[in-house]
């Protein structure tokens, strides 16, 4: 099984290793999404999306996945749209994690649009 080594599992995105996993840059889809908690919005507007305790910012190719990720921290997450095409043109590096996830070192707030908050109770 890929990623297994006798007694260890290798993290594909570097969650559990001390050194940064180096990824190859790629050309992202024009739009990506990020689900986050309501408590994080003011910081994201001021500083952009930062990796926090992770090695990379995780971005989804579709809204549904982004909202599911956001629900890990908030039962009513906020959906953000990232203009990845413009960010890439302006020098932000993107790395393909898998078919549904793209990674970035950070995403400045100038490339982020607040789309919606979750409407679930």
Write up what this structure looks like.
This protein is of the alpha+beta class. The protein has a single domain, classed as ADP-ribosylation fold. The protein has three helices and eight strands, in the order E-E-E-H-E-H-E-H-E-E-E. The chain has helices at 41-47, 63-70, 84-89; strands at residues 4-5, 8-9, 31-36, 57-60, 78-83, 94-96, 101-104, 112-117. The strands form three sheets. Strands 3-5-8 form a three-stranded antiparallel β-sheet. Strands 4-7-6 form a three-stranded antiparallel β-sheet. Strands 1-2 form a two-stranded antiparallel sheet.
Salient structural properties:
single chain, 121 residues, alpha+beta, ADP-ribosylation fold, 3-stranded antiparallel sheet, 3 helices, 8 strands
Outline of this structure?
This protein is 17% helix and 27% strand. The protein is of the alpha+beta class. A hairpin with a 4-residue loop joins strand 6 and strand 7 (101-104).
CATH level-3 fold name: ADP-ribosylation fold
Q: Which strands sit side by side, in order, in the main sheet?
A: 3-5-8
Give me the strand/helix succession. EEEHEHEHEEE
Total domain units: 1
CATH architecture: Alpha-Beta Barrel
CATH class: Alpha Beta
Distance between the ends: 40 Å
Report the strand count: 8
Which stretches are poorly predicted, pLDDT < 50 over at least 5 residues?
Answer: 8-15
Average pLDDT for all residues? 85
Q: Considering DSSP H and I runs of 4 or more, what fraction of the residues is helical?
A: 10-25%
The number of helical elements comes to 3
Structural class: alpha+beta
The general outline is: globular
Radius of gyration: 15 Å
Largest sheet: 3 strands, antiparallel
The proportion of strand residues reads 25-35%
Protein name: RNA 2'-phosphotransferase
Family: Belongs to the KptA/TPT1 family.
Keywords: NAD, Transferase
């Amino acid at each position: 099984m890929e990623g297994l080594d006798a007694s260890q599992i290798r993290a594909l995105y570097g969650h559990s290793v001390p050194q940064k996993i180096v990824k190859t840059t790629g050309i992202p889809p024009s739009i990506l999404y990020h689900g986050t908690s309501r408590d994080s919005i003011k910081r994201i507007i001021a500083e952009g999306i930062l990796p926090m305790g992770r090695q990379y910012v995780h971005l989804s190719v579709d809204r549904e996945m982004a909202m599911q990720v956001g629900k890990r921290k908030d039962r009513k997450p906020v959906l953000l749209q990232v203009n990845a095409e413009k960010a890439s043109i302006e020098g932000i590096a993107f790395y393909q994690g898998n078919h549904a996830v793209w990674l970035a070192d950070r995403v400045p707030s100038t490339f982020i649009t607040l789309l919606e908050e979750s409407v679930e109770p």
